[in-house]
Amino acid sequence: xxxxxxxxxxxxxxxxxxxxxxxxxxxxxxxxxxxxxxxxxxxxxxxxxxxxxxxxxxxxxxxxxxxxxxxxxxxxxxxxxxxxxxxxxxxxxxxxxxxxxxxxxxxxxxxxxxxxxxxxxxxxxxxxxxxxxxxxxxxxxxxxxxxxxxxxxxxxxxxxxxxxxxxxxxxxxxxxxxxxxxxxxxxxxxxxxxxxxxxxxxxxxxxxxxxxxxxxxxxxxxxxxxxxxxxxxxxxxxxxxxxxxxxxxxxxxxxxxxxxxxxxxxxxxxxxx
Length: 273
Prior knowledge:
CATH class of the largest domain: Alpha Beta
Number of strands: 12
CATH superfamily of the largest domain: LmbE-like
CATH topology of the largest domain: Rossmann fold
Distance between the termini: 48 Å
Order of helices and strands: EHEHEEHEEHEEEEHHEE
CATH architecture of the largest domain: 3-Layer(aba) Sandwich
Shape: elongated
Helix content: 25-40%
Largest sheet: 6 strands, mixed
Radius of gyration: 25 Å
Number of domains: 2
Strand order of the largest sheet: 3-2-1-4-5-8
Number of helices: 6
């Protein structure tokens, strides 16, 4: 039988908080626990079983560093906790999942239970209210979570390993520092460097060629040449050049951007926006 989706979770309720809108397509959930379950965790696992009955998936439990008896060879999608999530137990569940399913990289997806992941998007108001009602019904032991909107307002998934890309270029130009201290008085006059620029577009939402290297590089080169032209008369520092290029890149590509500008491959400045 071809199954659709397997979810790896560190806690009972992660599957609902992170993937509530996709639970209809889930076949199995494995709760990878940090330690043998105590009384509180046993209660949460029972709540998870009731939720599973509602959506028609099976639940399994294992300890993160123990042998797993489960085999899911026919699963088409495997959802793992986001690598960007700093929670220790979420990272343990991610490691367990990678050890078991890492060879099936085409199946791997990541999900986040918080809004900080770059691929999450706001849920429609009706979906938010339905998710809250479902949570209140099936996880009464965790009702304090309802007080934190970040768990309910956003959802999303991506191929595991959300990429960033970096393009690099070099252009000759001039700058100066009119208020340079006496120890480096020569900097008060226009002087030439081979300036290097590295532009990194972070947290791209697509797994493969969300932005094409040559197109980004060509755009960055044109923008940087304009900045260098201004520098000849205004004396821009590397910090100023990096900031100006980063702001322009952020406005164009609508993602977090980091820009490094260096002088002759030696000294440089980095700005992130």
